[in-house]
Structures are given as structure tokens and as C-alpha cells.
Write a structure and sequence with these properties.
single chain, ABC transporter involved in vitamin B12 uptake, BtuC, Arc Repressor Mutant, subunit A, 2 domains, three-stranded antiparallel beta sheet, 20 helices, 76% helix
């Protein structure tokens, strides 16, 4: 425990120069890839980053063969050139052939990556003196970053951020509505080419830290996680940048605690964990949120069915003041025992039912709610019969599904559209707020 705390203190105090380099490099890389990846993700071109990353590998080998030594900036430039050529190849294949984008990406990825492996194999067997570490560009090795590497990553990250801010509106139009952008005279191909170039830059600066195999995950996963939390572009970019930067920090921290574990894969594991948490817990989109909504809707449907059943039974008898035992209510609808018990308790709590021992009856609020549900059901049956020409044996089932999710505004529009019908297609009367007054008269 003491050793873990001591290592944690040493890491977050940034007293070690090597730690500062790794943290700065991975956080800058995560921020750049996350923010830019938002546009790639929203454009549904997630595999483009993967293809460009693999296309960058032969550039690393060719730059080394030309220079005869391993320097980060020239290797990155070489990687950028071949990655950029890979992007042009994808664009050419999709534009001038009948192949789809996924086929073009698969071809470019496999061809360029295979070529890159051949070059690296040639270098390894060629006896070059400074070849050590070139293979790290495949899987990444953040610990090998030098101050010059981090400086280059910082400069490119700043350039990416400035370019995105300056061209934000144009990139937004190209991603969301290229047709409208073209009608405004915006050169779509130029801006798409600019976006691809930015992706190439983000990919190439990430080769040293996470390698060609994992950089696509760092480009797309933060954006996918951010998408779960917001529907707006600017907050999504901010969240993706934060998630990418946080994954860089935590990945470096875990790797510092366990030096035998490489930083790059841990960065990807952390950002994947952030995505998993977002997928589960994000409001409105998260799985847990949707399950809660689903269960809430099921409980509402059960309550509505009880109110509707008691209201219709009272309507047939002309009396809503009688108490009903739990068993009698269960016979009015196909309720499960646990479902019925829970729904009755909720209806008593919200004032829709009045309880006396194990007997229940509608309150005035419950009568009004039961009347409204019955009215909505029968209005929908009229609509489905009149406008969709559904057979009578299909009306009840479809109206049953729609009666629980209609707002008062839509109810008013539906009533006006149908011209206030008095009976449904089965000749049953449609109640219009008459029951509440009748119930009060009976109670008095």
C-alpha cells in the first residue's frame, strides 16, 4: 500500500522527466485525436482512420531508408506522405470505380500495410545500425518519446486545434449537409480533402505512442463516448477532447505503476472503458437510462390499464363509487400478481385510487384519468379505421399501444381532426369529461 501511494505521488507530482514526457505526449495525442475524431465519427467514416494509420507504415520505413537514421520528425513526415496518398487512393477508388467505401478502405489498408511490413522486414535484415525501435511504430511505445517528439506532437496538436476553430462552420456543413454546402458555393472536395489531411496529421503523431494498430481506436472511441452525452457538436468536440486527454493521462499512470505493461494499449483500454461507462450511464442514450425509461413506461401502462378497466366497468354500471377487491380488479385485466400489487400501490400514492383494507375504488382524479385513457383509446380506433382503413380486429391492438404516449396538445389536434366523434368503430361511446361530474353527483 505504501509503495502504491509513493508511486502515485511520484507520478502526479511530475518530478520525473520521463513521466512528464509520456504524460504530455499521450495527453496531447488523446486531445488531438479525440477532437478531430468527432468529425470523422459523425461523417460515418470511422474506418478511414484505421486505413490511414496502416497506410502510414510504409512512409516510416521509406523515410528511414532515405535518411539512414531514426529521427522522429522525418519519420512522421514520411508517414504523413504515404497516409495522405492512402487517403487519395481511397477517394480515387470510390469516385472512379463502382466499389463502395468499405471495399476501398480494405484494399488500401491491406496493400499499404503489407508494403510497410515488407520494408520494415528489409530494414531488419539489412544490418542498418539505427534500426532499433522502428517496429514500435506498429504497436507504439510512448516511453521512447523524446523532448523533440513531444514538442512536435504539441505543435501539430496546436495546428489541428487552430485549423478546426477557423474552419469550424465549413467542416460542420461538410459533415452534416454537404448538399446545402454545395448550394452555397462551398468547395466540398477541398474541405473534405482538408479534413482528410487533418486526420492524416493526427494519425501520424500518434504512431510513436500507440502505433498504427491502435491509433484508430484513439481517433474514434472518444468521439463515440462523447456522442452518448450530447446532441450538440461543440460540446461533443469538447467532451471527446477531454476523454482522449484523460485516457492519455490514466494510461500513462497505469503503465507507470506496472512498467512491464506498455502505455499505448493501456491508453486504448482506458478510453474504451470510458466509452463503456458512457454507453451504460449517459442520460437519454445510456443503456441503464433506457432500461429505466422502459420499466417506467411499463409501470405507467399497468397503472393506465387499471384505471381504464375500473373506469369502463363503472361506466357500464353507471357507478364509480363502489370498492373492488384486488381479486376482482385482477379479473378485469390480465395482470400479473406482482405487477398488480405494485401498480395499485402507486395509484393509491398518487391519489388516483382510494383504499379500504384490500378494497380499492377510483377517486375523482382516478375517474378523470380513466376517462382520458378510454377516450384516447377510442379516438385512436376511429383514426385507424377512418384514415388507415385497418380492419376492425386490428384496431384494439394498435390503439392499445398508442393510448399511453399522447400529449394533451396532440389529443386536441386528434379530436379536431376527427371532428369530435361520439362513438368508436365498435359503436362504443367516447367520453368527453362527463364522468367526473356524474361521479361527484353520485358521491353527494
Amino acid at each position: 500500500m505504501v509503495e502504491w501511494w509513493d508511486l502515485t505521488y511520484r507520478f502526479f507530482s511530475f518530478s520525473d522527466a520521463a513521466v512528464r514526457l509520456v504524460v504530455a505526449g499521450t495527453m496531447l495525442l488523446g486531445a488531438a485525436a479525440g477532437g478531430l475524431g468527432t468529425f470523422v465519427y459523425l461523417q460515418k467514416r470511422s474506418l478511414v482512420g484505421d486505413a490511414l494509420a496502416h497506410a502510414a507504415l510504409p512512409g516510416v520505413g521509406l523515410a528511414f531508408l532515405i535518411l539512414g537514421e531514426k529521427q522522429f520528425l522525418p519519420l512522421v513526415v514520411g508517414a504523413a506522405v504515404t497516409a495522405w496518398l492512402g487517403g487519395l487512393a481511397v477517394d480515387a477508388v470510390t469516385r472512379y470505380t463502382r466499389l463502395k467505401l468499405d471495399a476501398a478502405l480494405g484494399m488500401v489498408l491491406s496493400v499499404f500495410f503489407g508494403f510497410g511490413i515488407l520494408i520494415l522486414t528489409h530494414i531488419q535484415k539489412g544490418g542498418y545500425a539505427d534500426q532499433s525501435g522502428l517496429a514500435h511504430f506498429i504497436f507504439g511505445k510512448a516511453a521512447a518519446m523524446s523532448p523533440g517528439d513531444v514538442t512536435a506532437i504539441g505543435v501539430i496538436t496546436l495546428l489541428l486545434a487552430v485549423t478546426l476553430m477557423v474552419g469550424f462552420r465549413h467542416f460542420k456543413l461538410v459533415v452534416f449537409d454537404p448538399g446545402f454546402a454545395a448550394s452555397l458555393g462551398l468547395p466540398i472536395r477541398i474541405w473534405q480533402f482538408a479534413l482528410t489531411t487533418l486526420v492524416v496529421m493526427a494519425v501520424t503523431i500518434g504512431l510513436q505512442a500507440v502505433g498504427v494498430v491502435l491509433i484508430a481506436a484513439l481517433l474514434i472511441t472518444p468521439a463515440a463516448a462523447a456522442r452518448q452525452w450530447t446532441d450538440r457538436l461543440a460540446p461533443m468536440i469538447g467532451l471527446a477532447t477531454a476523454f482522449g486527454s484523460l485516457s492519455g493521462l490514466l494510461g500513462a499512470y497505469i503503465s507507470f505503476l506496472a512498467p512491464a505493461l506498455p502505455t499505448g494499449p493501456w491508453v486504448v483500454v482506458v478510453v474504451s472503458s470510458i466509452f463503456a461507462v458512457s454507453l451504460l450511464l449517459a442520460p437519454n442514450r445510456g443503456i441503464v437510462w433506457r432500461l429505466l425509461e422502459f420499466w417506467g413506461h411499463r409501470r405507467k401502462v399497468s397503472r393506465d390499464h387499471i384505471l381504464k378497466a375500473l373506469y369502463r366497468h363503472g361506466m357500464d354500471r353507471g357507478n364509480w363509487t363502489d370498492y373492488y377487491p384486488r381479486r376482482a380488479i385482477a379479473e378485469l385485466w390480465s395482470f400479473r400478481p406482482g405487477e398488480l400489487r405494485s401498480a395499485l400501490g402507486q395509484l393509491v400514492a398518487n391519489g388516483s385510487l382510494e383504499r379500504s383494507g384490500d378494497m380499492f375504488r377510483l377517486t375523482s382524479a382516478g375517474i378523470a384519468s380513466g376517462e382520458r385513457i378510454t377516450r384516447l383509446h377510442r379516438l385512436w380506433e376511429v383514426y385507424l379505421s377512418r384514415y388507415l382503413d385497418l380492419p376492425s380486429d386490428h384496431l384494439h391492438r394498435d390503439a392499445e399501444a398508442m393510448e399511453h404516449v399522447i400529449s394533451p396538445e396532440l389529443e386536441a389536434q386528434l379530436t379536431d381532426l376527427l371532428e369530435h366523434p361520439t362513438h368508436d368503430p365498435h359503436a362504443q361511446p367516447i367520453p368527453y369529461e362527463r364522468a367526473k361530474g356524474e361521479a361527484k353527483d353520485q358521491a353527494s
